[in-house]
Amino acid sequence: MSAYRRVLRHKDFRYLFLGQAASTIGDRAVVVAIALYVTQTTGSATDLGLVLGGQTLPFVALLLFGGVWADRLPRQRIMIATDLTRAALHAILAALILGGAVPIWALVAIEACFGAAQAFFQPAYSGLVPQTVPEPLIQEARALTESMANLAFMLGPALATALVLGVGAGETFAFDAATFVLSAALLTRVHPRPRGESQPEQPVLAALREGWSEVRSRPWVWATIAAFTGTVLCVFALWYSLAPGISRSLYGSVGVFGVLESLAGVGAVAGALVGMRWRPEHPLFTGLVLMLLNWPVLSFVFALDAPLALVIVMSLTTGFGFSLFIIWWETALAQHIPAHALSRVSAYDWMGSLALLPLGYFVAGPLAGALGARTVLGVGGALGAAMLALALTPRSTRQLGGAPVGLGLRTDGTGAREPADRGLLAGAGGTAGDDGAR
To answer: Are 84 and 23 in contact (CB under 8 A)?
Structure first.
């Protein structure tokens, strides 16, 4: 609690935190609401994949441009504009649902516009958080935002399940629209501190090349992103496309899927609390191992019709490991990537990790129809585990340490210390040559 109070004393972070707490709960509710609404209205995994893929495709396609603009314009202004855009979109969708059944094409079109707005929001948010707290508090700020996100991960699915099954999907989307309005209002009170040296404005393509150079020169960055490209395809996309239907066939209710998502949120909240204090010597390696032992395994045991008690335990531990990994990953990026390029690197991270997600959504239904949903989900879990294991192969991934923030020094991939200005230029470059990346 003392760590929480220390971070929340900074009012700019406090306003950012409160706004995102509201909108993230709404977002998590909507993810499950979409799955429940489509499953209830059409019962088609292909339709659900079209809606989820329709949202994700423009998100992935526009992320890099979102990163460029987030490194060029005031980040909180971009976030306000995208919050208001998303509020309008889900207010329209709520009105359509309350007025009658919504055709799948209309749902896909609205969610595609939503994903496009999200593409400009996410890189701006990643770059703004470190600007709202002093450098020594970046991990605590990341842990607290992750606590909030994971509390939303716990409450959102439960709220969506209650609203959709008890009241209706339209009310869920109306609630989400209201949270975006609140977030935008709070963001108007955020005045971030300058961070890093200002850079001359570049043409868009030159800015993208510079961001890619920051990624390419660090094996721990690009190898992790590459692993997530495959794992998100094989695990995440298949889980959200197929698990609701499998839940109904195995356990008699699609609501079990919402409960499992909420339990993962419980584990994630616990992980975020631990992340406030736990600083392992090699955080990226530790986080990837936790992910490997839980995330793909959950899909595998669920597909095998494991006892519900085991699936519940795996949901909890998956949320716990995922939360810690995200905290350590985001902290590593903030500490080892130059501040002026952080949003672009974050955009490459999001784009690379989610590059195949739309494909996963689109093919999940047809594959399940041909091979069986449980077979597809189980094989996907096994493939995801193999890809996460490959992420551990670069030496810099295994040896990357935390930066001793506030001391003017940084720990490079081998554990040696070097001046902070050289570290900002080289990142984990001290180990890049060892991995054969240069």
So the answer is: no
